[in-house]
Amino acid sequence: MPTNPRPLAVTLQVVSIVLFTFIGYLNIGIPLAVLPGFVHNGLGFNAVIAGLVISVQYLATLLSRPHSSRIIDNHGSKKAVIYGLFGCGLSGVFMLIAAFTHNLPMVSLVSLFIGRLVLGSAESLVGSGSIGWGIGRVGSQHTAKVISWNGIASYGALAIGAPAGVLLVQHLGLWAMGVSILLLAALGLALAWNKTPAPVVAGERMPFMHVLGKVLPHGTGLALGGIGFGTIATFITLYYASHNWGNAALSLSLFGASFIGARLIFGNLINRIGGFRVAIGCMTVESLGLLLLWLAPSAELALAGAALSGFGFSLVFPALGVEAVNLVPASSRGAAVGAYSLFVDLSLGITGPLAGAIAAGFGFSSIFLFAAIASFLGLSLSLYLYRQTLNQPRHPDAAL
């Protein structure tokens, strides 16, 4: 690429790479609105197990982050993405097994758990790999753009995948989700196979645990903000059902559309006013949206709460992420992205069973109050970090 490429050329290059994140997250989104109801109502397990089926994927992503980061930094981002797409395809096989053994609830449940574990490991490879691949192709000065577009790809895929999964199951059956995941993985592999890789950055690799310690405060803020997303993604369908409201999948789509719209409109704010300021504003809006979901007396106001939550959560990941990646040298960028992303995996991993337990004791509305409190704590932490780091110098070889 030229030394100073046009903004449009940079954006097109980034979009061509985060396309693989889009494909990977379609595989995640397709079963997202279906599996909790299938496990709870179809297989007869309780709300905690239904939440755990979703959350185990995020736990697998969390545990696989260190290994994925080593693959990205040592062997290249393209290889990581290809390995991840293979994993997505394998998860589709286990989805098919679960569909065809629905009359054997325990066998079906175990197959779902295995498939979710495989998909979680694949997610860490595809998501972080695409970020590393994009930064390597367009330059570290465009880190915020790459992270933002990667998020647009991921949440856009969830917004499309959730209602698509509902329609597939309604018209064809659960097996159709497994076939769709296999076909999407094959498409991703075909597109990635001959695409130009990003060069592997030379230099000393910081130990993953050292990098993890550096990004711990930023990741904690991300984790607290991510609880709202995990709560909406996992329980919005059961929340709507508890009120006898329709169009639950629409709330996920509206969440994703608001998320994408906010990134497209306000994505440049991170470079203009700084990551911490953006994170503070975003988590304020997210907290208000979650409170509205908690108090919503109608499906329409619940939709508004989901939209507001999506708008608020939109820039939390890139805003705190840019500040976190700035703390390490470029040769350890993959480790920084992986270590930072680990915290949203942790957040989403514990949200399912924890929110499920809260719902079992206090009702489904109460889980949004829990998420709002977590978001407010993330806002408070971001304020503290902003005040503490105003005069802190960046690493001389940081990504930005």
From TrEMBL:
Molecular-function annotations in GO: transmembrane transporter activity
Protein's cellular compartments: Cell inner membrane; Cell membrane
One cellular component term from this protein's GO annotations in UniProt: plasma membrane
Keyword Transport: yes
PROSITE patterns found in the cross-reference section: MFS
Membrane-spanning parts: 7-26, 38-60, 80-101, 113-135, 147-168, 174-194, 215-242, 248-266, 278-296, 302-325, 337-361, 367-386
Membrane topology annotation: Multi-pass membrane protein
Similarity annotation: Belongs to the major facilitator superfamily. YhhS family.
HAMAP family on file: MFS_YhhS
Protein name in UniProt: Uncharacterized MFS-type transporter HWQ56_07015
Source organism of this protein record: Pseudomonas eucalypticola
